[in-house]
Design brief:
Number of helices: 2
Shape: elongated
Number of domains: 1
Strand content: 25-35%
CATH superfamily: SecB-like
Distance between the termini: 25 Å
Largest sheet: 5 strands, mixed
Order of helices and strands: EEEEEHH
CATH class: Alpha Beta
Radius of gyration: 20 Å
């Protein structure tokens, strides 16, 4: 479980089940006997990155901007969703939620969706799903982290610097939950 630099933990909100199409390997990538050409190497390209949604609430301002007696409790939520746009193109969405509370009152709340359009070519079918849900969000995370830090700083608070997130662990946990749900 990832923890924020401010002590909150990354909780994975329930996401919808992801169904990614498994494109058939191109004829030249399949072993079709003697004389077959070697498979082309797998490639991943980022075609675009974009901020889909950003919300920052500072409901108690200006009182919450004054020095506090104790550090607020910060909770962090992380979720990853993906969808096929074409046989090799995927939109991957990284959702981050951060909420700071002190004495039962919300100090600030931030929510964001940061996405990227990825082209994954020549991936073996068994590696495509993990690549989309582990490697793609890993590439998006530094940019989303910076946007969230800047939003909290612009809101009058110290920048919220998230620790790196274990997307492989999140993926394994999600797959285990789905396998027990279908069993």
């Amino acid at each position: 479980m990832a923890k924020s630099a401010n002590g909150g933990s990354a909780n994975e909100p329930e996401g919808e089940e992801l169904e990614l199409a498994q494109p058939e390997a191109p004829a030249e990538a399949r072993d079709e006997g003697p004389g077959a050409q070697p498979a082309a190497p797998a490639s991943m390209r980022i075609l675009a990155q974009y901020l889909k949604d950003l919300s920052f609430e500072n409901p108690g301002a200006p009182q919450t901007l004054a020095p506090q007696a104790a550090a607020p409790e910060i909770s962090i939520g992380v979720n990853v969703n993906a969808r096929n746009l074409a046989p090799t193109d995927f939109e991957v969405e990284l959702q981050l939620e951060a909420k700071a509370q002190s004495q039962g009152k919300t100090i600030f709340a931030a929510e964001m969706k940061y996405a990227g359009l990825f082209r994954l070519e020549n991936f073996p079918p068994n590696m495509l799903h993990p690549a989309v849900l582990i490697e793609c969000p890993r590439m998006l995370f530094p940019f989303a982290r910076q946007i969230l830090a800047e939003a909290t700083r612009q809101g009058g608070f110290p920048p919220l610097m998230l620790d790196p997130i274990d997307f492989a662990g999140m993926y394994q946990k999600r797959m285990a939950q789905q396998s027990t749900a279908t069993a």
